[in-house]
Amino acid sequence: MTKKNAVSKNSINLLDEVLAVGELEPVEVALPDASMMVRRSWTGDQILTYRRALNASTTDLQKLTEEQQRDRNVDVYMTMSTSPRKDVEKFVDAMAELPAIAFGMVDRRIGQVAGLIGEDGNFTFTSPRGKTPTSSDE
Fold it and tell me: Which of 45, 74, 110, 130 could form an S-S bond across to 17 if both were Cys, CB 3.0 to 4.6 Å?
């Protein structure tokens, strides 16, 4: 199965046009015992990969074992991070030591730093990169 078809170099990448976020360099986020780099520039494909990882097992998170929850969190944070897997795993393990309320607050803040979560805690596209040309632009 071919994943991508050949497209003209002059074509508009619609995923980037509607989903791409930010144009900032990654930034380090830290807990007392671990840190990782969080991307702040996202292509449309990267947004889809993040959303797929996020949604992969969110239907019944309470039914997952601790190991399954850890693996799911590592998978999600790997899409958000530019750090090596071992650093992300250490960060996820440090997060797991937090009380549930603090875990949720830290998780949301990481999403905000990445440009994926708004101040209200909802998924948002805070700074789209592209702009579709309109007749008034031409």
Answer: 130
Distance of CA 1 to the CA centre of its chain: 27
Strands 34-42 and 21-31, bridge-based pairing: antiparallel
What distance in Å separates the CA atoms of residue 38 and residue 21, rounded to the nearest whole number?
13
pTM for this one?
0.77
Q: The tokens of 124 are what?
A: 């948002």
Q: What are phi and psi of 38, to 5 degrees?
A: -115, 130
List phi, psi (to 5°) of 4: -130, 140
Contact between 34 and 88 (Cβ < 8 Å)? no
Q: State how far the Cα of 24 lies from the Cα of 15, in Å rounded to an integer.
A: 19
Give tens-digit pLDDT for 78-101: 999 999 999 999 999 999 999 999
Q: 79 with 46: CB under 8 angstroms?
A: yes
Phi first, then psi, for residue 48 (nearest 5°) are -65, -40
